[in-house]
Amino acid sequence: SYELTQPLSVSVSPGQTARITCSGDALPKQYAYWYQQRPGQAPVLVIYKDSERPSGIPERFSGSSSGTTVTLTISGVQAVDEADYYCQSTDSSGTSGVFGGGTKLIVL
Amino acid sequence: QVQLVQSGAEVKKPGASVKVSCKASGYTFTSYGVSWVRQAPGQGLEWMGWISPYNGNTNYAQKFQGRVTMTTDTSTSTAYMELRSLRSDDTALYYCARDGVVPARMFFGMDVWGQGTTVTVSS
Asked: What is the pairing mode between strands A33-37 and B10-12?
């Protein structure tokens, strides 16, 4: 079955830039979405269609795509950004969804 | 406001079935798809499937094919997810989420989530 691969954790100091990658063979063909999940809360959509930001999401969140890898970038990281981040996409047929394993963002 | 409200926690024995509901409000129910996602304790998110309330079309993850059924009741703006032959590893928090504009199948991510329903499978 199709898989998306994320690093287990990323650590950054406040004010620095965090980059979280997600790799998958179908990503050149299918859009990626990013979700933030804080402990005990439901996920929140932070990026859709690789690089679009929903209303209400701070400008410090951005997304990009290059080949089989998509990247979530958080500029000027704040303590409140410490959370788990999941990428999500679909297989090459576009009918079956999949999540990456999740990346824990640690703000030092 | 736009929201999805899910049914309460369930405790089931192995081999039983569970049916979780997800009631939508604040938007036109038949204009958006619904995905179901689960999260086992301490684990990541797992996509289970998607349903279009517009026409009942479904896509299920291969892992759950034959064991899951997703339905909707447009008269009450409610989506349902039934999982059968429960096992201990089905113990998880189950979420519904609004996902995509239908029938055009235009996707903008899962932009509204329910609060989650805990399903515990234990003998």
From this structure: unpaired
Which residues have a Cβ under 8 Å from the Cβ of A37 and sit 6 or more positions away?
Answer: A43, A44, A83, A84, A85, A86, A102, B45
**Per-residue pLDDT reduced to its tens digit, B43-98:** 999 999 999 999 999 999 999 999 999 999 999 999 999 999 999 999 999 999 99
Q: What backbone phi and psi angles, to 5 degrees, belong to B100?
A: 95, 150
B10 touches chain A (CB under 8 A): no
Residue A100 neighbours by CB under 8 Å, 6+ apart: A4, A5, A6, A22, A24, A86, A87, A88, B44
Which residues on A lie below 8 Å from B107 (Cβ)?
Answer: 31, 48-49
The segments of chain A whose pLDDT lies below 50 read: none
Q: To which residue do tokens 């509204």 refer? A: B112
Q: Is A97 on the interface with B (CB under 8 A)?
A: yes
- Asked if A48 lies within 8 A of B62 by C-beta distance, the reply is no
